[in-house]
Amino acid sequence: MEHNEINIKELIRKQILGQLDAEEAALLEREKVRYSEEEYDGMIIEELRQLEGQLPPDPLDDWEPDFEHIIRRGNELRSKRRRNLYMEWGAAVAMWLMIGGTVVYLFATKQEIKDILLLDVACGHLEGNTEIPVLESSCVVLLGDSTLIRVDQDQFGIIQQIGDLVISRTDAGLLRLKRNAMDGQEAPSTIKDVMIYTGARQQCVMELEDGTLVRLNAQSYIRYPLLKKDSLSIGFSGEAYVQALGDDDGRPLAIATRNGKVTVQEGDFVVRSTEDYTKAVLNTGELDLYSYKLKEAVTLRCTNDFGMISPSANSPKQAPRDSLISASNVDFEVAKMWTKVVRTYEDIPLRAFVDEMSRWEGFTIKDWQCVPKDKKINVSVCYLNDRKEVYAAIRKAGVLLYEEKGMISFCAEDNNRRMVFKEWNSGDKSYTSHKLEGGVQDEWR
What we know:
The chain is an alpha+beta fold. The chain has helices spanning 8-16, 22-32, 37-50, 67-79, 332-335, 350-361, 387-396, 412-415, and strands at 97-100, 103-106, 117-119, 139-143, 147-151, 157-162, 165-169, 175-179, 193-197, 204-207, 213-216, 221-225, 233-244, 253-256, 260-273, 278-291, 296-300, 306-311, 322-327, 342-349, 364-365, 376-382, 402-404, 407-409, 419-425, 430-436. The chain folds into three domains: 3-50, no CATH class; 79-94 and 131-335, Jelly Rolls; 340-444, no CATH class. The protein has eight helices and 26 strands. The strands form five sheets. The chain has a 16-stranded mixed beta sheet that branches. Strands 3-22-20 form a three-stranded mixed beta sheet.
C-alpha cells in the first residue's frame, strides 16, 4: 500500500476502539514514524473528540460508586469552599494577547464598565469569586496509543497502576500521580508515557509526583513520563494553571511544548500553548521560557511578567523562525479567568472572548479572519451555561454569527445565506427566535 493511500487517522480510530488487527497494528507502527510526536498527538486528540460517546468500555465501567460517601464529601467540601485550595487567588477579568508579526496587543488596564450582560444566574449556588470545584474534575487517561480510561467525577481511589506510576483520585477530586516503588510493576516496553486529556467543558486538577498542582483547562493535555528520571519533564498542549511547590532536591520542573519549554523550580503561573505559540504569565516565583529554534530564553521574575514564543512574519524565501517576546504589567488575574465559576469579561476584544469560549464550549471557528477586530464585549458568564448564552453575548455586542454542526462563522458570505438565532431578553430571562433571510443588511434596516 502506498503511503499516500494510507488513512492513518482511520488506523488510530480503530486502535482506540480496539478494532485493529495485527497487520493494521504493524502498519500503524511503520506509519507513525513519519510524523512528529506533536503531530501524532494532535491526530489522537482529534479522534478522541470525534469519538465522544463511542469509546470502548474500560475496567471501571462496572464499578459501583459509594453515593452516600460522594454526597457527604461534596457537602463537606462546599461548606469549606472559602477555605479550600487556591482561595488566595482573587477575581479576574479576561486576557487577550494578539500578535501582529512581532507586535503584541496587550491590554492590562481595567476600565470602568457600566453595562455588563449577566448570564451567570445558573451559578447561584456557587460563589462567583471561586474556582470551579476540584470535585468536578474529569478527564481521559490514555495509556500508550490505545488503552483509554475515563476518569469521571464519581470515581475515587486507584484508577490505574502501570510500572511504579500510580494514578489515583482523592476524595476531594484531585487526580494524583505518584511513584510507588514498593509495589512497582515492570512497565510495558511499548509504553513510554501517559496522556491525560480533557474534552470540551472539562477541567482536571492534578498533583504531580513532585507536589506540583496543575489545573488543566478544556481541550488540553499533558504527556507524563512512565519512567522516573532525575528531574520531571512533561509534554503539554492547551492551557493550564500551574503551582510548582519546589522539589526537595532543588530539581526544576520542565513543561515542553511544540516550540519551546517552560522551566520552573517554584512559583505559580498560567501557560498556554498551541501549534504556533507558547506564552506564560507569572504570578509568583521565577521561570524561564526557552525557544527551541532561537536557542534563547527569557526569564520572568516579577508578578504580571509575560513571555511568548511566536512565529515571525517571513517572506516565502526566508526560513521560518520564531520571536521571543517579553513584557511586564500583564494582569495575571486576567490570564487565570477561565478557572473561575463566573467569568467576568469587561470591555475586552471580541476575539479574546470567542477564543476563550470556543475552547470551553468546544465549537470551531471557520475563519478567524472574519471575527471583527474592532468589537469589544462586556459579559459575565457562568461555567455551567451553554453555548446559547455565549452566542447571546456575541449578538449583544452587535455581531451576527452563523452556526452549522458545531462550526461558527462570522463571515459575510455565510451570514448572507441564512441566519437563525435566539435573542436573549434580559427582562424576562427568555429567548426570542429570529430567522433572517437575505443577509446581514436585513437586520440593520
